[in-house]
Amino acid sequence: MDLQHLRYFVAVAEELHFTRAARRLYLDQGALSTAIRRLERDLGVRLFIRTNRSVQLTHAGSALYPEAVMLLSSAEHLMDVARSHRAPATHRLRVGLFLGHHAAAELTQPILSAFRHRHPDVRIEAVDLDLLSWAPALIHGFVDVALTRGPVDHAELAFTGLFEEPRVITVASHHALAEADRLKVVDLEPLQREHWSVPGSAPAAFHEFYTLSDVWDVRDLRRDVPPPRGLGEIAETVADGRVVGSLPLSSARAMPPGSVSSLRVDGLTGVVAGVASRQGGTNPRVAAFVSTAQETVRELVGFVPQARPVPAASEDTAGRAPGS
Fold first, then answer.
1. N or C: which end of the chain has fewer CB within 10 A?
2. Max CA-CA distance within the chain?
């Protein structure tokens, strides 16, 4: 039994709503449901009665809820006591997060937490970075390492792939191609007539990702809106029907419910999430962060729907995989 799964149980028990609990936990709803099923399997009891209209605690769930709260409180107290006896952090690691907590999807916070647990002498300073700032922040030393998406086509930077997830096309929920409840596979031809959300000053490899130039000719691509800097701007322009966008599946799932639909296009390569750092760097804490990220992903990659781990020896090849 995992304490993290208990935290998920408590959140659902308090919200009695999987979507609200998932938002509270910064977790995908599908991953939350999977975690609850695993906890029920570990405990050997059913915790919730879930219908299309409501979520209710079972008798076992009601009995276990106060026990789970006390156990989590005791675990937190134990950590507080341990922290009070630790030596003060003697080192600092500035970690850039490309698009904030979306950097490594559902695994962003577990990676950071795992590093803090393994290296209590290192103080992490997390810095949110957008599409245009993440690479310069690394190159010029504003951050030491970054959770980001491939491709990384800067000679000054190294990139270690962690996991790959599908790339989807996002359209407004009222778009003619939209289908609300499942990913729909569509042809390229109708999408070529759409206006596309394309960043203005991103590296060439990112343009390939955002314009699908790896699967079609984009010389006549229509891009009539200001270039976005982050997921929020992309979500806003897609949801109101001004543009369509190319995104990792996890980023599409994070958009406001009911605002967009995600479409599959045959032939699109996936999106690699990974760790970027300065080429030839000698900071041992950066190497430790990369190692921790790899181990965390191997253990928890199932929490990112439809993701698969990238082989460990992929530092160079992962950098050439399309990303966001």
1. N
2. 63
Q: What fold, for 3-85? A: Arc Repressor Mutant, subunit A (1.10.10)
pLDDT tens column, 183-192 = 566 676 777 7
- CATH homologous superfamily of 91-165+271-320: Periplasmic binding protein-like II (3.40.190.10)
DSSP 8-state class, residue 95: E
pLDDT of 52 higher than 60? yes
Residue type, 322: P
Quote the pTM value.
Answer: 0.67
Q: Cα-flanking dihedrals φ and ψ of residue 215, to 5°? A: -130, -5
Q: Which CATH class is domain 167-265?
A: alpha beta
Q: Residue 303 CA to chain centroid, in angstroms?
A: 10
Count the helices and strands in the chain (H runs, E runs).
11, 12
In one-letter notation, the amino acid at residue 262 is S
Cα distances from 154 to residues 78, 207, 215, 278, in angstroms, run: 44, 14, 23, 10
Two tokens, residue 227: 């270039």
> Coil, helix or strand for 150?
coil
Q: Which of 196, 172, 321, 166 is nearest to 258 (CA)?
A: 172
